[in-house]
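step=encode ok
step=design start
structure_in=
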């Protein structure tokens, strides 16, 4: 049985009523006994719960191919970023070594 939304035309009271689809709409506001109108609602969405239901189960083949291409390109770019960071770390280490050797040279003079 669905839940219907109503709004009073006189006092603007909003309320919901759980009633059968074949039942007549409510005509009287429970607050002020004024006239009410049944509102159009989007209804409640439903969710698949449990094992075996995934959001990607019913995707088109073109969507699946696009997703796979995106994953492949992002993984290759992340590998490139990792190698770039290793290069910058090694250059920092080399520069710190040269700084320390030059500082020892200056102190020995």
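sequence_out=
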């Amino acid at each position: 049985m669905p839940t219907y939304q109503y709004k009073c035309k006189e006092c603007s009271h909003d309320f919901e009523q759980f009633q059968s689809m074949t039942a007549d709409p409510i005509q009287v506001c429970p607050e002020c006994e004024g006239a009410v109108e049944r509102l159009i609602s989007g209804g409640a969405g439903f969710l698949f719960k449990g094992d075996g239901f995934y959001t990607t189960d019913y995707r088109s083949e073109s969507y699946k191919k696009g997703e796979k291409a995106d994953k492949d390109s992002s993984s290759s770019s992340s590998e490139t970023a990792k190698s770039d960071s290793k290069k910058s770390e090694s250059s920092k280490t080399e520069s710190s070594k040269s700084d320390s050797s030059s500082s020892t040279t200056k102190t020995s003079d």
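step=design ok
step=annotate ok -> The longest strand covers residues 3-8.
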